[in-house]
Design brief:
single chain, 692 residues, alpha+beta, Glutaredoxin, four-stranded mixed β-sheet, globular
Length: 692
């Protein structure tokens, strides 16, 4: 829908969604459908009027959600049927991942696939009897139309309601065990090798990444491969990481004009993206590029991570310090319009000489590569060859290209921007905090840890209840929804990274406090592992757990690594036991197909070890060089603590074992313990580097 059409739609009577804060729900506030938000009012009305529920789940930057709104939810004929015969409920999946998770599992079980928009038909008691994703208004080809479905279920509800209720009970009986059916077992290092072989088999030798189109970045796959390489020194593992990241960066999935990665590539070559940008993808990709830079020392990976941060700090940061969720694929109702160029346009802006050079480098042609226009990319581009052809050095070529990029960016800024989902999610901010803190460590850029600190303070001031309970979403002055497992796990990860960026013990203290809340509210005492939502949250028809590392690493996988890292940092055996229980609770399930659990396997590798606890004692100024040298290294199985000569009490309370690990003769001193055995103290940087 165009902006004009949106304004015209607002001449209609608004529905209840105008009272909500979710950008997705507000997009539907002037639909003729009498939408309800998820809540007691909707379900009470469904019971009182004996109507089935039409549940629609999506998010504000979802392209096919926009299509279904335009075709059906803006349509008076569809609205009339929904309003007369159903209670229609809209849910933002990013605000209510608990609701989305359960009903997405229903859809996958019934249809064999899932996605958004997610469409559920269910009883007033929230029990589903039919599920699907996108439906056109009228059927076409093999796709059933929404009007046909609505008419079918109106008749069935009137004539065979009991049959439908029985069907919903059968679906729940079948689905519920699957939501919490995990196999425990003993830790098995063989899983790591099995996963690696599966990655080798699915690796795309020609274009990088795994499997065929569509291709998703899935950064935690590469994080696992880096750890596998660190342990085995198998160069093929590192090559898969380098080649895949280089291919992604070269492709159109990367925004070469304004920076940042799109959600996924629709083709095998990484050329044509689905143009929406998600905070979590960019956070995880920045983190992975930083780790790859640590391993390879290839500055290109450092530059990509810096560019991602440039984009996020420029376009996605709230003035108070938190970070927004996503940017849409569409602008002016057209997917990708904001991002593509014609050759004529580039030449007009840059002039013939620089314009031709820019078009040659970024594959911008008269015929285009996307619906008549061009997505800038570096696929099959050799900067060395182009520099030679133009009698330029590589540095001179890069300077000219950067000048051209800046001009194009300034012009692009004048275009109508894609919709920005400006809600602030605790979980996704936690991922970016981890990435920014990692950037501060690896690149020696304290401004990144300052940005991470602002985001942390935002979360702790704006997204906690009066009791200190973490909350999930903030927008327009309102914090809402008890935080989920991912919120806790990702924030704890971010706090641990921020400690290693700053060595301020307050971040560890906060991580430990959140970790205790997580245990109190989410831990499954009977079977181990963490439930997706807390014991104080709304009870749905099931209380699921998740271990699959999909677009995001699962909260359970991240929590496992957090526990193990905190155990090494603090020396607390209880945390060590909890970490082992966490891994054992899921390991039998992971054995079924290990490569779809890459973050879990990263935690398993940490557990297997060997691990190192590195304590540096002295004053901060004198130890600065030692700390910098350590931060530049890829040490996935190490934790690093700083023991200051002054103000020791804060860290000593958290990690009592370091109390006696002091500077020797006023010199910066390093203590390294490996697998519970400590080596003699080190006072020379050269010896430290040799030891690690």
């Amino acid at each position: 829908m165009t902006l004009l059409e949106k304004e015209q739609a607002k001449t209609r009577e608004p529905n209840r969604l105008t009272l909500e804060k979710s950008p997705y729900l507000l997009q539907h506030a002037y639909n003729p459908v009498n939408w309800f938000p998820w809540g007691d009012e909707a379900f009470a009305r469904a019971v009182a009027e004996d109507k089935p529920i039409f549940l629609s789940i999506g998010y504000s930057t979802c392209h096919w959600c926009h299509v279904m709104e335009r075709e059906s939810f803006e349509d008076e004929e569809v609205a009339e049927v929904l309003n007369q015969h159903f209670i229609a409920i809209k849910v933002d999946r990013e605000e209510r991942p608990d609701v989305d998770h359960i009903y997405m599992n229903v859809c996958q079980a019934i249809t064999g696939h899932g996605g958004w928009p997610l469409t559920i038909f269910m009883t007033p008691e929230k029990k589903p009897f039919y599920a699907g994703t996108y439906f056109p208004k009228q059927g076409r080809g093999r796709m059933v139309g929404l009007m046909e479905l609505l008419a079918h279920f109106v008749e069935k509800w009137e004539k065979e309601q009991q049959v439908m209720r029985e069907s919903s009970e059968q679906i729940i009986d079948a689905i519920t065990p699957r939501l919490n059916q995990f196999v425990s077992g003993e830790l098995d290092e063989g899983l790591v090798e099995q996963a690696y072989k599966q990655f080798v088999n699915s690796y795309d030798q020609q274009y990088g990444g795994f499997n065929q189109a569509p291709k998703f970045p899935t950064p935690h796959q590469y994080m696992f491969l880096l750890r596998y390489y660190s342990k085995t020194k198998d160069k093929n593992a590192l090559e898969m990481v380098e080649n895949s990241l280089n291919a992604m960066f070269s492709g159109g999935i990367y925004d070469h004009i304004g920076f940042g990665f799109s959600r996924y590539s629709t083709d095998r070559k990484w050329l044509v993206p689905h143009f929406e940008k998600m905070l979590y993808d960019n956070a995880l990709l920045a983190y992975t590029c930083l780790e790859t830079y640590q391993v390879t020392k290839n500055k290109a990976f450092a530059e990509v991570s810096e560019q991602i941060f440039t984009y996020l700090l420029r376009d996605m940061q709230d003035s108070a310090g938190g970070f927004y969720s996503a940017e849409d694929a569409d602008s002016e109702g057209v997917e990708g319009k904001f991002y593509v160029w014609s050759k004529e346009e580039v030449l007009n802006i840059l002039g013939d000489k620089l314009g031709e050079l820019f078009c040659e480098v970024y594959n911008i042609s008269a015929e285009g590569n996307f619906e008549g226009n061009s997505i800038p990319n570096l696929l099959n581009t050799s900067l060395g060859d182009i520099a030679k052809e133009n009698s330029l050095s590589i540095d001179e070529l890069k300077q000219q290209l950067e000048a051209g990029r800046k001009k194009l960016f300034m012009i692009r800024e004048q275009r109508i921007h894609p919709h920005k989902d400006d809600k602030i999610l605790t979980a996704w901010n936690g991922l970016l905090i981890a990435a920014l803190a990692k950037g501060a460590q690896v690149l020696n850029r304290p401004e990144f840890s300052s940005a991470a600190d602002r985001a942390i303070e935002f979360i702790f001031k704006k997204l906690r209840s009066e009791s200190g309970r973490l909350l999930a979403r903030y927008r327009d002055g309102e914090a809402k929804y008890p935080a989920y497992l991912d919120d806790y796990a990702f924030m704890i990860w971010g706090l641990i990274e921020q400690y290693e960026a700053t060595y301020d013990a307050k971040y560890l203290q906060r991580a430990l406090e959140l970790n205790q809340q997580l245990k109190d509210l989410f831990w499954d005492e009977a079977n181990g592992g963490y439930f997706f939502y807390g014991s104080d949250s709304e009870r749905l028809f099931a209380r699921p757990k998740e271990i699959y590392d999909g677009a995001l690493p699962s909260g359970n996988s991240v929590a496992a690594l957090n526990l193990l890292r905190l155990a090494r940092i603090t020396g607390d055996p209880t945390l060590e036991e909890d970490g082992e229980k966490q891994l054992k609770a899921f390991v039998g399930t992971v054995k079924e197909y290990p490569s779809v659990y890459p973050f879990f396997l990263s935690a398993l590798l940490f557990s297997i070890g060997p691990t190192k606890e590195i304590v540096i004692s002295g004053n901060l100024e004198d130890t600065d060089e030692m700390l910098r040298q350590l931060k530049e290294k890829f040490l996935p199985n190490a934790v690093i603590l700083f023991h200051p000569e002054e103000g020791q009490s804060a860290i000593e309370k958290i990690a009592p074992f370091i109390a006696e690990q002091k500077a020797i003769n006023g010199q910066p001193t390093v203590y390294i313990c490996e697998n519970f055995a400590c080596q003699k103290p080190i006072t020379e940087i050269a010896e430290l580097l040799q030891k690690i």
